[in-house]
Specification:
20% of the residues lie in helices and 27% in strands. By secondary structure, it is of the alpha+beta class.
């Protein structure tokens, strides 16, 4: 009998060409599929909730694969982690309905962009932050970010899109907060456009540095000019924190490497 297994995956995207399999570059999908084949001896296709770009990290990416294997979910977690390298880990595995689609059934996605204010480099955080080197005005950034909430045409913050695709997204939350010497931009929406978070964070940094006013930021949203937010911050500062669903993960069916109930909220 074919089973659908849903995985919650954490990864350091450094050195990968993104989640989706690429012809001539390493990807998270390829690594997962190789590990599944090593564990079950059968090739499987992995489908994820989102195609994170090259260099982007994830704390809780969700993906599924179908298998005839009878291995219990706790063995799936341990087995896949045995075959995966140090940059990718399966945090949890669940039995999922055959109809479960991690992309189409997601109700929200949460991304976090980390900005380092420190005047000196931080080798330990170089791979997960973007250093601005100056103190940012988080109050001004928060006021500007508030204009993002609700349903908007976000083409000003979008990279290239296939013809005919909509630029409309629904932003549930746009928060800016300081954590030590870091400033975090956290966005929650039903879905995101290509480069949307990194372009949004870039525009908010301009606000925080006094180079862009809140009014100009609001006008950018309303401009309808694709790519008006020209600054695309580096991928290394971006992490997919969480993917939310109605009824997933299922209660009383959680398996993690620490044998504890999985929580989807990132730290």
């Amino acid at each position: 009998m074919t089973r659908r297994i849903a995985l919650v995956i954490e990864y350091d995207g450094t050195g990968y060409a993104g989640f989706q399999r690429q012809a001539n570059a390493p990807s998270i999908q390829e690594e997962l599929e190789n590990a599944i084949e090593s564990l079950t001896t059968v090739r499987a296709t992995v489908r994820g909730a989102g195609r994170t770009d090259a260099g982007v990290h994830a704390l809780a990416q969700v993906a599924v694969f179908d298998t005839e294997s009878v291995l219990p979910t706790e063995r799936v977690v341990a087995g896949l982690n045995h075959y995966l390298g140090e940059q990718i880990a399966v945090r949890a595995a669940y039995e999922a309905p055959q109809a479960f689609d991690p992309r189409r059934h997601a109700t929200a996605r949460v991304y976090r962009y980390r900005l380092l204010e420190s005047g000196t480099p931080s080798p330990m955080r170089r791979g997960v932050t973007h250093r601005v080197g100056r103190r940012l005005d988080t109050e001004a950034m928060s006021l500007a970010a508030a204009n993002l909430t609700g349903e908007h045409d976000f083409r000003a913050f979008s990279g290239p899109q296939p013809a005919g695709k909509t630029f409309v997204r629904r932003m549930a939350r746009a928060a800016v907060f300081r954590y030590g010497d870091e400033v975090v931009v956290e966005l929650e929406a039903n879905a995101f456009l290509p480069q949307q978070v990194r372009r949004t964070a870039g525009a908010l940094v301009a606000v925080g540095l006094g180079k862009l006013t809140e009014s100009a930021f609001e006008q950018m949203i309303e401009s309808g000019a694709q790519g008006a937010a020209e600054t695309v911050l580096p991928a290394r500062g971006l992490t997919l924190q969480e993917v939310r669903y109605a009824g997933f993960p299922p209660e009383n069916d959680a398996t993690t490497t620490h044998n504890e109930t999985y929580e989807t909220h990132g730290s």
